[in-house]
Amino acid sequence: MKNYYILFILLCFLSCSKNGQSEKKAINESDEKYEVVINELLSKMTLEEKIGQTNLRGTSSRAKTLSEELKQQVREGKVGALLNVMKTEFVDELQKIAVEESPNKIPLIFARDVIHGFKTMFPIPLGMAASWDEDVARTSSRVAAIESSSVGIRWTFAPMLDIARDSRWGRIAESPGEDPYLASILGKAYVEGFQGDSLNNSTSIAACAKHYIGYGAAIGGRDYNTTLIPEPLLRNLYLPPFEAALNTGAATVMTSFNEINGIPATGNEFLLKDVLRDELSFDGFVVSDWDSVVEMITHGYARDEKHAGELAANAGLDMEMTSKAYENNLKALIKEGKVSEKQLDVFVKNILRVKLRLGLFKEPYRDVANEAKFYEKTHLEKAKEAAIKSTVMLKNEGVLPLAKRSKIALIGPMADAPLDQMGTWTFDGEKEQTITPLNAFEAADVNYTYIAGLSHSRDLSKKEFKKAIAVARASDVVVFVAGEEAILSGEAHSRASIDLPGAQENLIKELAKTGKSIVLVIMAGRPITITNVIDDVDAVLMSWHPGTMGGEALQEIIFGLEEPQGRLPVSWPKTAGQLPYFYNHKNTGRPANKKDYVAMYDIPIGAWQSSLGNDSHYLDVGYTPHFPFGYGLGYTNFKYDKIEVSKDTIRFNEDITIKATVTNTGTRTGKEVVQFYIQDVVGSITRPVRELKGFEHVNLKAGETQEVSFTISSKILEFTNNKLVKAAEEGDFNVWIGPHSASGLKSAFYLKD
Ligand code: GLC
Predict the structure, then answer these.
(1) Which H or E element spans position 231?
(2) φ, ψ for residue 410 (rounded to 5)?
C-alpha cells in the first residue's frame, strides 16, 4: 500500500504550490490524481481481488470474537467493506490485516447505520423534518459523524430520502416527509453534516443516499411492497431529494428493496445507469440493501443466485451488501461472458475512488485523537434544541404553557420510556443517557406526581387506572405522555391501524371524566390518529421519538421556556382509511368541497341515490386530513396581510417576487414558518393543487410586523411531463403565502412564453 500512497503524495506534491495555499485545491484537483492511483492499482489486482472489493460483509455488532475465516478473507483481499463491526479493537485489527497483509494493501471501509445520532440521539428524521430547519439536519449528522468516526465508522447508511405519503409505513419514521422541496433541503444538509467540509477529514463519514428509489410508495404502506411509479411522478416527486444529495457530493447510494413497475431497484439498469450515472453524473458507488441482490429471486426476477448476480452486475450495482451472489458467481459470469470484466473494473474504480476521497489510503486507521467524546454537553444541547424545533403543537385550548407551580399529574406509558423515546435505528444509543419527561420534571423541581397508568404502549391492562385517576383528581392538570414503542416503528413495522396502541385511549377518556385539563404528548414514529380522543384533551404536542434530550425539551415547552416550533412534514390523517394522503394531490375532475359534502350521519334515511355531492370524498371522514401538511401552533398568533406579486405576467427566465406581511398579534415573542406555495393551474399533465416552493423562519416580538418575500424564476416552475420533457409551461399560476398548506393569502401571475 505504501508505494501507492507515495505515488499519490508525489502526484499531489507536484500539483501543490510552495506555500501550500493550493493544498485544498490540490485535494480537490486530486480526483485526477486519484484516477492515476486507481488505474495503477487496478492493473495489479487479480479477478478475485476485484470481486473482493464489491463485497460488503455483514457482521454482528454483538460478536464477541473475530472469526479467523473473516480475517483470512480480508487477508486475501476478498472483502471491500464491513458492516456493524463495533469493537474498536476489531476495527483496528481488520484494517491492519487489510493494509499490511492483503495483496494490494487496499483499506477497508467500516459502515454502520448512523441515522439520527450515534450515541447522542437526535429526534427521528421525520421529527427533524418537522423542524423545517436545515441547520437541525446538518448539526445532527455532524454530531453523529464526530461520534461514530471516533470508533472507526467512516460510512453511514443515511440520509434516507424516501418521500412518504402513507403513515402506515413503519419507515416513515426515517423519512423526510411527503414533500420533495423540503426533503431536498434536508437531504443536502444531512450530506453536508455527515461528510463535513472534506470527506478525507477523519471526522467525516461517507453519506449514502437511500433507498433508491420509490421505497415509500409501497402499496398499502406495507414495507418492502410493490411500487408502481410512472416516470413523470418518479422524476417530479421521488428523484429530487436524491438529486439534491448527489449534487451535494453524497459519496454512495443504496438501492431499495422494492420493485418499481416490475423491476427490482437492485437490478434496474435504467435507474442505476441511465438516470444515476448518465443523467446525474454520479461517480461514487452504489450498494445494494441487505440481501436485496438475492431477493430478486424471491421477487421472481432472477432464476437463482447466479442469475441475480448477473442481473445486478449488468444493471450497474457496484457493491453487494451481505449476500454473496457476486462472491460466488462473478468469476464464472465473467468467464462465461455474461458479465464483462470491464464492468467489474468500473465497480472497483467507483469503490476505490470513494476510499481515496475518504483518505483511507493516507490514514486507514481511526484517529484516536477523536477518541470517543460521546454525549458532549454541546452535542446534548443541540439534540435538545432539535427536539424543541421538531415538536409540533396540534391543539392548545388555552392550557399551555403551564404555570410553573402547577400541580401536574404526569401519566402515560411514554413518560418514562428511555429506550423507546430514542425511536428506531438507535442501536448505539444508550437508554441510560436518555432524559425522559419524568427525569426532566424531577430535575426541574416541577410540582408533579407520576404514575405510568400503563406499563408500555401496548399495555391493555386497566389495573392501574384507578390510581391514575386518583392522581389526576389530586392535580391541577394532566400531562399524558402517549405514543408507540420504538419497535412499533421503523423497518418492517407497518401498522394497518395507527391509533394509539393498547388501552391508552381508554385511559385518556377515563382521565377526561375527572374534568381536569389534559395535555396529550405523543411520542411516536409516525402521525397517530387521535380522532377518538381529540375532544377529550385540551392540548396536543407531537414530540415524534424525540431522542436523548426529549424529556428536557418537553419540559421547557410545557412551561413556556421554549415554544413548540415544528410544522408537520406529513399530512396527519383522521383515520388510516384515508391513506395514502398528501397535500400535493391532484384536483381530479370532481374535487370535494364544503358546499356539497354531506357527512354520513347527516344523510337522510332513504336519501335519493344522487342526492349527495358526486365528488371525491369519504362519506364517513370527509376529504381533509386531521391536520394539514405544514400545520403547527406556537404560543402566539400571526396575521398575514397584503400579498403582492411584483408582476402580473412574467416571461421565461424572468424572476417574480411574491411578498406579504406577517404580524405577531399575540402577547409574546413567537416563531413562525412562513410558507410559500404555487399551483400550476393547467399543464400538459395535471399538476398538484399546491406545491411548496419556499419557506422562511421568522421570529417576531409581540405586535411586530415583518415583510416576507419569495423570488422565483420559471426554472422553479419546471416539471417533467408525460413526454419526459422537463420544462415550465405557459399559463396561469396561483400562489399562496401562509402558515400551512391549507390556508394562506392567495394571488396569481401568468407565465408567458
Ligand atoms: C436494512 C435497511 C437499510 C439499512 C441496511 C443495513 O435492511 O433497509 O436502510 O441501511 O439494512 O443495516
Answers:
(1) helix 231-233
(2) -90, 115
Q: What is the rounded distance in angstroms from the CA atom of residue 467 to the CA atom of residue 475? A: 13
290 lines ligand 1 (CB under 6 A): yes
Which residue stretches of 464-583 are H helix?
Answer: 465-473, 504-512, 550-558
Nearest CA among 99, 100, 58, 98 for reference residue 78: 98
Which residue minimizes the CA distance to atom 1 of ligand 1? 290
Q: Ligand 1 center to residue 328 CA distance, Å?
A: 22
Strand pairing report for 448-451 and 477-483 = unpaired
Query: How far does the centroid of ligand 1 lie from the alpha carbon of residue 211, in Å?
Result: 9
- Tens digits of per-residue pLDDT, 615-674? 999 999 999 999 999 999 999 999 999 999 999 999 998 999 999 999 999 999 999 999
The pLDDT mean for the chain works out to 95
Tens-digit pLDDT profile for residues 231-266: 999 999 999 999 999 999 999 999 999 999 999 999
3-state secondary structure at position 299? helix
- Nearest-CA neighbor of 669 among 639, 707, 638? 638
| Averaged pLDDT, 7-21 | 42
Exposure of 173 in the CB half-sphere (CA atoms within 13 A)? 38
β-pairing verdict for 705-713 and 655-664: antiparallel
- Rg value, the chain, Cα: 27
Sign, Cα dihedral of 145, 148, 154, 155: negative
Within 8 A by CB and 6+ apart from 188, the residues are 134, 244, 245, 247, 248
Please report the pLDDT score of residue 610 as a whole number.
85
**Cα 241 from Cα 239, distance rounded (Å):** 6
pLDDT at 51 over 90: yes
Tell how far CA 526 is from the center of its chain. Answer: 12
Ligand 1 pocket member 133 (CB < 6 A): no
State which amino acid sits at residue 48: E
| Grid cell of 217 as nine digits | 410508495
What's the mean pLDDT in 222-236?
Answer: 98
What is the CA angle 636-639-645, rounded to 5? 145
289, 255 Cβ separation under 8 angstroms: yes
Using DSSP's 3-state secondary structure scheme, residue 420 falls into helix
Beta bridge partners of 155: 111, 206
Cα–Cα distance measured from residue 11 to residue 520, given in angstroms and rounded to the nearest whole number:
62
* Residue 276: DSSP 8-state: I
Answer whether residue 9 shows pLDDT above 70: no
Q: Looking at 671-743, list the stretches that DSSP marks H as alpha helix, in order from N- to C-terminal side.
A: none
What distance in angstroms lies between residue 457's CA and the mean position of ligand 1's atoms? 25
Residues 299-351 have pLDDT tens digits of 999 999 999 999 999 999 999 999 999 999 999 999 999 999 999 999 999 99
d(CA 709, CA 660): 6
CA-CA distance, 8 to 361, in Å (whole number)?
Answer: 9
Testing ligand 1's pocket by substitution, the residue of 82, 112, 174, 491 carrying the most ligand atoms inside 8 A of its CB is 491
Q: How far apart are CA 531 and CA 508, in angstroms?
A: 13
Active site includes 655? no
Q: Which of 719, 657, 653 is nearest to 683 (CA)?
A: 719
**The ligand 1 atom nearest the CA atom of 84:** 12
The secondary element (H helix, E strand) that includes residue 37 is helix 23-44
CA of 289 to the centre of ligand 1 (A): 6
Indicate the range of 21-25, 408-412, 490-494, 524-528 predicted with least confidence. 21-25
d(C-alpha 333, C-alpha 336), whole Å: 5
**β-sheet bridge partners, residue 483:** 523
**How sure is the predictor about 113, in pLDDT bands with cuts at 50, 70 and 90?**
very high
Whole-angstrom Cα distance, residue 504 to residue 130?
A: 25
Position 605 scores a pLDDT of: 96
Residue 5, pLDDT score: 52
Quote the pLDDT of residue 611: 85
Once rounded to an integer, what is the mean pLDDT over residues 714-720? 96
Alpha helical stretches, state H, 513-608: 550-558
